[in-house]
């Protein structure tokens, strides 16, 4: 029987030295969990989007691949979209993990028919502790988060979204996902109040808030430092649209993960998967 392979790639900006050290540490964790690890040679240096796309396409074409962990972040992930074999990636059993700028690829894969992807920075697993235990247990607890309702008492549906700025990179492209009836989770690291308000307004003008079944606000790091509540920046929402927030989805190292494409049920203070957690790595 083939040993399952996990690919470590970087689709966005090159990794700085500390992140490269974490990549090496993560490879050891995965090998200890019985996985073969294949690492992109481009992680720490500038490269063309065509080369990065080739590496990603090859990773998903590997029949032994069970997961592709993107360890990057930044600005450049959407450069890959013209060169990705999205139908083949969607058909692969391997699951893409990534956060922040990878939001554009995760949601593009959803639009192409990929069943699930994971909004999470795998480098956080090198911190050890509870998150690593949850990851290795694969019992779904990594994807269950406490929520506080600001409007309504419950919501349920298929999860989509991620980083606000990077999701909006897909606006006006064939890769924009169908958000009808979805639960939309949004977070941001940078962004002043005016920038976040503009992003929310853009979603409203696109009719997104009229389409979704519920909105969940994660962490907005810069806003928190400035003492601004992101919910206060939303334009009036459609009548009856539930609104909740969680402090567990965002850029912080102790963040939990969001299983995009999965059915999520939010009530009684928790957002939980409605079906057993699938094999994701």
Q: What does the model show?
A:
28% of the residues lie in helices and 23% in strands. It has helices at 17-32, 49-61, 86-91, 103-111, 129-137, 164-167, 193-205, 208-211, 221-225, and strands at 5-9, 36-39, 65-70, 95-98, 117-119, 145-146, 148-151, 154-163, 183-188, 214-220, 243-245, 258-260, 263-267, 270-273. The two termini are 16 Å apart.
What structural class should be given to the helix and strand makeup?
A: alpha/beta
Helix content: 25-40%
**DSSP summary: helix tally:** 9
The largest sheet, given as strand count, sense and whether it forms a barrel, is:
8 strands, mixed
CA radius of gyration: 18 Å
Weakly predicted, low-confidence segments: none
Q: What is the H/E string? A: EHEHEHEHEHEEEHEHHEHEEEE
Largest sheet: spatial strand order: 6-14-13-8-9-10-11-7
What's the assembly state of these chains?
Answer: single chain
Let me know the number of strands: 14
Q: Ends: how far apart?
A: 16 Å
Envelope shape = globular
* Strand proportion: 15-25%
Mean pLDDT: 97
Provide a quick synopsis of the model.
The chain has 281 residues and is of the alpha/beta class. The chain contains nine helices and 14 strands. It has helices at 17-32, 49-61, 86-91, 103-111, 129-137, 164-167, 193-205, 208-211, 221-225; strands spanning 5-9, 36-39, 65-70, 95-98, 117-119, 145-146, 148-151, 154-163, 183-188, 214-220, 243-245, 258-260, 263-267, 270-273.
């Amino acid at each position: 029987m083939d040993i399952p392979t996990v690919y470590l790639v970087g689709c966005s900006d090159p990794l700085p030295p500390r992140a490269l050290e974490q990549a090496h540490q993560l490879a050891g964790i995965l090998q200890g969990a019985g996985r073969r690890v294949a690492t992109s040679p481009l992680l720490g240096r500038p490269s063309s989007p065509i080369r990065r796309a080739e590496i990603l396409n090859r990773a998903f074409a590997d029949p032994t691949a069970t997961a592709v962990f993107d360890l990057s972040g930044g600005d450049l992930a959407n450069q890959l979209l013209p060169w990705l074999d999205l139908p083949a990636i969607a058909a692969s059993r391997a699951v893409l993990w990534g956060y922040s700028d990878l939001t554009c690829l995760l949601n593009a894969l959803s639009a192409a028919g990929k069943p699930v992807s994971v909004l999470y920075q795998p480098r956080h697993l090198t911190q050890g502790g509870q998150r690593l235990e949850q990851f290795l247990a694969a019992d779904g607890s990594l994807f269950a988060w406490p929520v506080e309702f600001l409007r309504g008492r419950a919501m349920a549906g298929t999860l989509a979204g991620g980083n606000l700025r990077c999701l909006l990179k897909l606006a006006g492209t064939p890769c924009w996902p169908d958000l009808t009836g979805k639960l939309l989770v949004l977070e941001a690291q940078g962004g002043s109040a005016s920038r976040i308000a503009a992003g929310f307004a853009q979603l409203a003008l696109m009719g997104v808030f009229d389409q979704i079944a519920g909105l969940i606000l994660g962490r907005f790091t810069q806003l928190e430092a400035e003492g601004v509540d992101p919910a206060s920046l939303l334009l009036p929402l459609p009548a009856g649209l539930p609104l909740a927030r969680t402090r567990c989805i965002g850029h912080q190292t102790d963040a939990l993960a969001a299983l995009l494409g999965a059915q999520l049920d939010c009530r009684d203070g928790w957002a939980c998967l409605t079906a057993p957690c699938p094999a994701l790595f």
